[in-house]
Amino acid sequence: MSDTTGNPLDDPATDPFEVASAAADDIARLTGVDHHDIALTLGSGWGKAAELIGETTATFPATEVTGFSQPALEGHVGTLRSVLTPKGRRVLVIGARTHYYEGHGVRRVVHSVRTAAAAGVRTMVLTNGAGGIKHTWKPGTPVLISDHINLTGDSPLEGATFIDLTDLYSLRLRDLARTIDPSLDEGVYCQFRGPQYETPAEVRMAKTIGGHIVGMSTALEAIAARQAGMEILGFSLITNMAAGIQTTPLSHQEVIDAGREAEPVISSLLARVIGAL
Ligand code: 8IG
Question: Does the beta carbon of 186 sit less than 6 angstroms from any atom of ligand 1?
Fold first, then answer.
């Protein structure tokens, strides 16, 4: 089943959808909930939303679930939880993102999305911290993702799997989010491989090709979510102006600080949006 890493996803002979199905069984056992309706991946700055969505009925380390990796980064909590909303909907909150730059391959990157799908989820909410290209976006601004440009050169799809990505970030769900906060702006998310931030020239390129947000996650996850037939809502928290847009150098600390400051506001926004789903 698995090679020396102990993760079955690292064995090319393993079917990633079977691993996701085993992971969904683990989640059903650990939560006592055999079907989740919504999944929410928490990126930098969005962590407090989980408490506001509803009542947490189970919390456990992601490492107890088949195929999940240890978190690479402090500030990325490796926890999964099951939350019951006031409307009676079950939300799987994923605080355990595996990033592409970790170098474990795209199967591990999208495993949480495929697991959510196997757990019955139909609505996938993806959040991240990211750099902003629009000058009007100050650090701490939440924005909707309207579309993406995948600059990783990779894909979660294997073989001749031709998948339509029109309306990947559901217009219906973006409109619904704007009924909660009409001031929400939106933009095109460019996924770079990372982990280095962009050069100013790369940010100018992203802007020229139609990008407004630069990040290191989400696009590959959204592709996998679409493959699984889920409806997708994407939010970026602009934690910094992209390189060259601001004059000062980027730092991870700046990202953490902006996230911390914006957290109460964006978490309540996210909770209200999820309440309306
Ligand atoms: I937070 O400026 C965060 N993540 N690629 N560029 C990229 N990813 C990011 C950035 C950024 N800020």
Answer: no
